Amino acid sequence: MNNEIHRALYSTEDLSEMSGLPLETIRGLYRKGEIAGQKIGKRIFFSADEVQRILQVDDKSARYKHLTEIRTLEIENQSLRNQINALKGILASASSILE
C-alpha cells in the first residue's frame, strides 16, 4: 500500500479501494470536513499526504476494534468457564445423589 502513495492526487474510488471504506463514507467524511480533498468538477481528489493520514487513522481504528473484540472474547470465555464450573458442581451433586 505504501508503494502506491507516490502520485499527486487520488480519487474517491482510489481511496475507497486502499482503505476499504465505502465510497459514500468517504464522500460523507469529505462533506463534513473530516478529510481534506479538492473537488474538481464533480469528482473529489485527495493528496498523497491526506491519503497516508487516512490510512494511518484507519489502521489505528482497526487495531482498536481488534483489541475491543479480543476483550469481548475474553469476557465471554470467562463466562463460559464459570458456566462449566457450575455444571460440574451440578453433575457432582447429581452423581452423589445417584450413588
From TrEMBL:
It holds the Pfam family HTH_17. InterPro entries: DNA-bd_dom_put_sf, HTH_17. It comes from the Bacteria. Residues 9-55 form the Helix-turn-helix domain. This is Helix-turn-helix domain-containing protein. It comes from Proteiniclasticum aestuarii.
